[in-house]
Amino acid sequence: MAQLGGTPVFIMKEGTERQRGRDAMSNNIAAAIVIAEAVRTSLGPRGMDKMLVDQFGDVVITNDGATILKEIDVQHPAAKMMVEVAKTQDSEVGDGTTTSVILAGELLKRAKKLIEQKIHPTVITEGFRKAAEKAVEILDNISIKSGIDDKEGLKNAAMTCMSSKIVSESKEKLAQICMDAILAVAEKSENGKWVADIEKVQIQKKEGDSIDDTSLIKGIILDKEVVSPGMPKSIRDAKILLLQSAIEIEKTEFDTKLQITSPDQIQQFLDEEEHMLRTMTEKIANSGANVVICQKGIDDMAQHFLTKAGITAVRRVKKSDIEKLAKATGGAIFTNLDDITSDKLGWAGLVEERKIMNDSWIFIEECKDPKSVVILIRGGTELIIDEVERAIHDSLCVVRDVVEDQKLVGGGGAPEIEVAIQLRKYASTLGGREQLAVEIFADSLDIIPKTLAENAGLDQIDTLMKLRAAHQKGNKFAGTDLDTGDVVIDMAKIGVVEPTVVKVQAIKSSTEATSMILRIDDVIASARSAGPPGGMPPGMGGMPPGMGGMGGGMGGMPPMDY
After folding, report:
1. How many Cα atoms within 13 Å fall on the side-chain side of residue 409?
2. With bands split at pLDDT 50, 70 and 90, how would you rate the model's confidence at 554?
3. pLDDT of the residue at 561
4. Could you tell me which residues come within 8 angstroms of residue 353 by beta carbon, excluding any fewer than 6 positions away?
5. 104 and 32 Cβ atoms separated by less than 8 Å
6. Does the domain at residues 151-218+377-405 carry the CATH identifier 3.40.50.720?
7. Beta pairing, strands 7-9 & 2-4
8. Residues 6 or more apart from 377 whose CB is under 8 A from it?
9. Does domain 18-145+409-522 sit in CATH 1.10.560.10?
10. d(CA 425, CA 440)
11. Which entry of 62, 88, 98, 312 is annotated as an active-site residue?
């Protein structure tokens, strides 16, 4: 609103809220810090889980930062930016979501103190940018070389990732499964670098048994049954035909009429249909195939002929599953039965229909060099299975990161302490107020080892002092053993390692989000829309019950009675 000759002039819609300057900044920083505090207790091997209940009563129990923030219905715009930090971290590297959010929260908390000392936000953000660039460089320098041939490093990285999850008791077996899955699907790209696409690792879940019964299937699981009970349910040395066309008589694309003048013609018509289906199944049998996986339908008569030929068939399989089968079995996908050749058929050591709980699934396994595999997750309840799936997803991402980036750093808060110490030395080379921002960035990195210690019931300050002393002596991977509380001189030697790219991404995404929040000095919130006439249900659109649509009166009009 502006004053012009004593008359108020409305620039923005009536009801618009506006916060400026220090108030807007404080409000945004406070909201972001609340989000960071919400996930802080879930960090590390001794971190706790969160139970999230949505409006429909569905329950999620997890300590995965990205999942926690995804499930919370966040309204504040600055808090939503913190949720985006976790989502970015999750989609980019698959792990380190909690670390990135906690780090962003600590950067904002410490930046607020600098703002109170009259240091301009752009000076702080510039200092943070320089500190982040230097931190990435330091991480690169202290990294250990690893890669697809470093089986021990890959397994240790997966185990470290799982040590903070509900599956920590079974982490060794699950880490081995994740490593084997990524090694199976990893391929060398044209530029000579290894690439592992985790989309090629299918996840199937089924309650029953325990987490220890989770297994890796070197092939594919189809959530289907064999089409006819007379077909073999278990086939060794399976030659698999992957078919995208239907094994049935195609209907014409336009309306047709058959004029039949005698009963013989009906029989001729049926005989011809039978002959066509018999010809189709003979083509399949002559190719040497003993398993048919069909994307479309299979006629009842064709099923009969296939059963007589001893061929097992599965129908209405998803296109994506057919493509995965092609990668797993090495077979070609056919669209025409005339094109089938025996050398283009897929191969699997075993194709078998098995009953898992109340469902029948088809297992296609023991493939020679599968470029698509399945992890079958078992567990006591649906909630446990869902959390195991999240843990396995994170571990798969971690192993992929090491295979592709080929670098590792020690865990247990070691890289953060080392980067912080070197950043303080770097800060002394800078002039002006940016030096303060870089020192604040270094102090913020300490929040990770401090939180790990706090969640394990150790004294934060004592742990931090011991770690700094060890690092000052040149032990770059000195970290805390959270079971005993001792400072371990080399976390890499005891197998606690993380991909460098996870730490790098956490620093990058948290710094960028922090800089964006710090540069906001004006928040203009529009008035809420009145919604469609006729009213909205109570509690929707932020309006009190009974104020939907025009019910409360508009522009000075009396309430209207509908």
Report:
1. 27
2. very low
3. 41
4. 225, 226, 233, 234, 360, 361, 362, 363
5. yes
6. no
7. antiparallel
8. 203, 204, 205, 206, 214, 385, 388, 389, 392
9. yes
10. 13
11. 98
Distance CA 527, CA 541 (A): 11
> Average pLDDT of 335-363?
88
Name the burial class of residue 252, with classes exposed (0-12), middle (13-18) and buried (19+) by CB atoms within 10 angstroms of its CB: exposed
Kindly list the distances between the CA atom of residue 219 and the CA atoms of 214, 240, 346, 350, 371, in Å, as whole numbers in the listed order: 15, 12, 11, 10, 8
Domain 237-361 class, CATH top level = alpha beta
Residues found in the chain: 562
Measuring CA to CA, which residue among 403, 397, 408, 400 is closest to residue 145? 408
Q: Of 107, 139, 137, which is closest to residue 437 (Cα–Cα)?
A: 107
Catalytic: 97? yes
- Rounded Cα distance between 421 and 416, Å, is 9
Torsion of CA 477, 478, 479, 481, to 10 degrees: 120
Percent above pLDDT 70 for the chain: 89
Summarised one tens digit per residue, pLDDT across range 422-462 is 999 999 888 778 889 999 999 999 999 999 999 988 888 99
DSSP-H helix ranges across 143-216: 151-162, 171-185
- Residue 332 CB-density burial (10 A; 0-12 exposed, 13-18 middle, 19+ buried): middle
* Residue at token pair 């002393």: 469
Check if 90 is active-site.
Answer: no
Which of the following is catalytic: 90, 394, 405, 446? 394
Task: Determine how β-strand 201-207 pairs with β-strand 373-379.
Answer: parallel
Beta partners for residue 314, in sequence order: 293
Q: Which of 62, 97, 160, 500 is catalytic?
A: 97
Tell me which residue of 196, 414, 224, 443 sits closest to 321, measured CA to CA. 224
H/E element, 391: helix 382-405
Q: Where are the domains of the chain?
A: 18-145+409-522, 151-218+377-405, 237-361
Q: Is 401 one of the catalytic residues?
A: no
Q: 327-336 pLDDT, tens per residue?
A: 888 889 998 8
Q: What six digits make up the tokens of 163?
A: 């040590």
Q: Say how far apart CA 97 and CA 47 lie, in whole Å.
A: 14
The pTM of the full predicted model, rounded to 2 decimals, is: 0.81
Is residue 329 annotated as a catalytic residue, yes or no? Answer: no
> Distance (Å, rounded) from C-alpha 58 to C-alpha 105?
29
Work out the angle between the directed axes of helices 97-116 and 500-518 (0-180°, nearest 10).
Answer: 40
More confident residue, 371 or 418: 418
**pLDDT score of 412:** 87
Which one from 64, 90, 386, 401 is the annotated catalytic residue?
Answer: 64
From the number of C-beta atoms within 10 Å of its C-beta (0-12, 13-18, 19+), residue 545 rates as exposed
Q: What share of the chain is helix, strand, coil (3-state, %, to 5)?
A: 45, 20, 35
**How far is Cα 184 from Cα 328, in angstroms, rounded to an integer?**
10
Whether the CB-CB separation of 203 and 178 falls below 8 Å is answered with no
